[in-house]
Amino acid sequence: MNLKNKNPIHFTIIFIIACIMLIVTFWISIVCGSADIDTSTILNAIFNYDPKDMNHNIIIDVRIPRDIGALLVGVALAVSGAGIQSVTRNSLADPSLIGLNSGAALMLALTYAVSPVISFPILILTGFIGAMAGGTMVLMIGRSRKDGFNPVRLILAGAAVSALLSAASQAIALYFRLNQSLIFWSSGGVSGTTWQQLYIGIPVVAIVVIIFILLSGQLSILNLGESVAKGLGQNVKIIRAGTMLLSMLLAGISVAIVGQIAFVGLMVPHISRFLVGTDYKKVIPLTAVLGGCLVVGADTVARMMGEAPVSAIISFIGVPYFLYLIKKGGRTI
């Protein structure tokens, strides 16, 4: 069956199913937790909030911000991965595998070493700068004039640069006694998400995702090859640079909120392309929904396992899938 030529009705059905999955997963995540809270209490907390009710405070101040944070990070990482895979034409690319996450984490460690009290906008800015530095290093090392972004070379460069940046983060954490912060950034978790972070993170991620959707036509053309894109009048350098900067911004926001989480940006774009084809006008929206569903679901499982790291839960799926892609030569499902 050729899934690359499905009609709009097929995409609509898939997208609606994905949205329903996200809503169900989000609701289950709100219900599940150490405190036994029933559905009526949750609805009452949302529509008739009583600040004196402890259960209402748990719902409004802890669970809902945490779940929205997981949704936001899932959207950001998945769309970032789709953008990176498109412009590099490397299906093994992922924000965590090409140095974006480790670069952002290093800059956050440096920021906390300078001052332990940092506003969230500054964290986003420093995370973006770190992601840009780490990603640029990997892309410069992994790209060749002969065959562009070779998948194996890019992944090897990403592994080397990520190891270097992670070691630097650990050294800074040890020297400035930031061990607790380092554990959080390396393990990944949304338990500390606050409404103040969301008030800033949601608009930024929403704007960037909308820009990606507006660029989806150019990304589809660029995915056909650089020569084809130039032949169709596309400014390849501007599209590639803009897409990478937007992807780095999304990665920086994600690390600022939850720390380092790998494989979301690798797996979800593959699943989306398998379901709706290679048209990025369909891939980007579906990737955003499925990415949110994955991280919210993983956080729910982590919570039920006694606050296990979200990154570990996702890695149980991501590592085998990554090895599977390597065995297939980086080709989509």
Describe the structure.
InterPro entries: ABC_BtuC-like (IPR037294), ABC_transptr_permease_BtuC (IPR000522). This protein has a single domain, classed as ABC transporter involved in vitamin B12 uptake, BtuC, CATH 1.10.3470.10. The chain has helices spanning 8-31, 39-47, 54-88, 100-114, 120-142, 151-175, 179-187, 195-214, 216-222, 226-231, 236-258, 264-276, 280-304, 310-327, and strands at 143-144, 148-149. Helix content is 76%, strand content 1%. The mean pLDDT is 86. The chain has a two-stranded antiparallel sheet. It is built from 14 helices and 2 strands. It is mostly helical and 333 residues long.
Taken from the alpha-carbon principal axes, the silhouette is: globular
Please count the helical segments.
14
Rg estimate, integer Å: 20 Å
Q: State the distance separating the first and last CA atoms.
A: 13 Å
Describe the strand arrangement of the main beta sheet, using strand numbers: 1-2
* Mean pLDDT over the residues: 86
Task: Give the % helix.
Answer: over 70%
Strand tally: 2
Query: Could you give a short account of the major beta sheet?
Result: 2 strands, antiparallel
Please identify the top-level CATH class: Mainly Alpha
Q: Quickly count the domains.
A: 1
Unreliable segments of 5+ consecutive residues: none
CATH topology term: ABC transporter involved in vitamin B12 uptake, BtuC
Order of helices and strands: HHHHHEEHHHHHHHHH
The CATH superfamily name is ABC transporter involved in vitamin B12 uptake, BtuC
Please state the structural category.
mainly alpha
The CATH level-2 architecture is identified as Orthogonal Bundle
Work out the strand percent.
under 5%
Pfam families: FecCD (PF01032)
Family: Belongs to the binding-protein-dependent transport system permease family. FecCD subfamily.
Keywords: Cell membrane, Membrane, Transmembrane, Transmembrane helix, Transport
Protein name: Ferrichrome ABC transporter permease
